[in-house]
Amino acid sequence: MEASKVSTPSTKRTSLERFRLKRALETIGKKEGRGTQLVSLYVPPGRQIGEVMGMLRNEYGTSSNIKSDFTRKNVQDAITKVQQRLKLFKQVPKNGLVIFAGAIPQNGQGSERMETYVITPPQPISVYLYRCDPKFHMEYLQEQLKEKETYGIIVIDANDAALATLEGSRLQIVRAETSGVPGKHRAGGQSARRFERLRDMHLLSYYKRVGNHANTIFLALPNLKGLIIGGPGPTKYDFQKSDSLNYMLKEKILDTVDTAYTDEQGVKEVVERAPEILKRVRYVEEKKVVQELLYEIGHDTGLITYGEKEVKKALESGIVKTLVVSEAVDILRVTVKCNNCDYERQETMKEQILPTFEQNLIGQPCPKCTAPSLGVTDTRDLVEDYAEQAERVNANIEIVSMETEEGQMLKNSFGGIAAILRFRQSD
Ligand SMILES: [Zn+2]
């Protein structure tokens, strides 16, 4: 949308982008052509459209050597489609561009239909690639489903501490500290109380040192999503209680985990468990959203609405604060058009109904011109449709998984679609 909109990295935004990409990859990844004739094109940011067009012209020329008439025609048609789509762009979008085109058999041999998909990736792509294969090349987009945010890691015990950053899958140990704190056993002749006091002082100044480094390193990261603290013993808790960490970092602590080691080994232990931790963090967020829905309903505040039609209405009147949709909603918005006249209508149906629906359309008279020329020309995920509308009115979007009880409740009790409103509906 508007370029001026400040987009702070939030799991909400990410949940939608990830969902979109996941759905697209699922759909496109399943497609198979007959023989080597599906074209995949990856254009990284910074390339000139003209240069890519030139490359495609060359490929078109080369493809005239293909012996099979059937394959040659399909490959050339696919390249033409890609060129047509590419021409619509004045320049390559900031994250690059991916175009897929190819003849896909719809219903056995001879039923091929040219399908084209244009994807603007959520993160910059780095490959420049043209391929013609029996399947579309999804692997470079697949990569983008992996987490790319930055996390801070502190591993600490009474002897050592290590600070690390985890950016996507890139791990960097930024700093290692040694406490210099004497062991728990005092030397002979020292008073026990004095020894304890000295040791505590040493520990406190060690925490302070580690804390200062953590504040400097982690607060400077613009995309820091959270902090995970690990370590073998109780020191990691004492450290957190010691107030050495800046309050902004404290708020970002996602979890505290036991590790067998400190140092690099301990950091790696934390990284191994990070995906599970992050998943749990997301589940907590999801639970909160659904619990907010339940609260509004329980207190009859009038600030929530649910169900496909009701939410659509609320979206259209621009009063949605947060759109909440279950990942499991499998409803399609289907466009039916007549081949003979300009008749067009939209229908909403469950995904699994679509094949039967299409079958039943065959031979049915058009309501306008009565010719038996009706066909499905476009299908769209309802979630996608709603998400787009929500973006238009600047609403938050939460795509909720089925992994929590609350997520299942959203699907089963509210049909998977609900909205928290900015104010009561007037009617
Ligand atoms: Zn018609």
In short:
The chain contains twelve helices and 16 strands. The chain has 427 residues and is of the alpha+beta class.
Tell me about this structure.
The protein has 427 residues and is α+β, with helices and mostly antiparallel strands. 40% of the residues lie in helices and 26% in strands. The chain has twelve helices and 16 strands. It has helices at residues 11-30, 49-63, 69-87, 139-142, 192-219, 235-241, 247-250, 263-298, 308-316, 354-361, 382-392, 405-414; strands at 38-43, 97-105, 112-119, 129-133, 150-156, 160-167, 170-178, 224-231, 253-258, 304-306, 320-326, 331-338, 344-350, 374-381, 396-400, 417-421. The strands form four sheets. A five-stranded mixed sheet has the order 7-6-5-8-9, sandwiched between helices. A hairpin with a 5-residue loop joins β12 (331-338) and β13 (344-350). α2 (49-63) packs antiparallel against α3 and α8 packs parallel to α12 (405-414). The longest helix has 36 residues, at 263-298. The protein is globular and about 105 Å long. 27% of the residues are buried. Bound molecules: zinc ion (ZN). Residues 338, 340-341, 343, 366, 368-369, 371, 373 line the site of zinc ion. Zinc ion (ZN) binds next to loops.
What string gives the helices and strands in order?
Answer: HEHHEEEHEEEHEHHEHEHEEEHEHEHE
Question: What Rg do the Cα atoms give?
Answer: 28 Å
Given the C-alpha coordinates, what overall shape results? globular
Q: How many extended strands?
A: 16
| Largest sheet strand order | 7-6-5-8-9
List of distinct ligands in this structure: zinc ion
Low-confidence parts lasting 5 or more residues at pLDDT below 50?
1-13
In terms of DSSP E residues, the strand content is: 25-35%
Question: Class by helix and strand content?
Answer: alpha+beta
Distance between the termini: 31 Å
Q: How many alpha or pi helices?
A: 12
The largest sheet, given as strand count, sense and whether it forms a barrel, is:
5 strands, mixed
- Considering DSSP H and I runs of 4 or more, what fraction of the residues is helical? 40-55%
Overall pLDDT score:
87
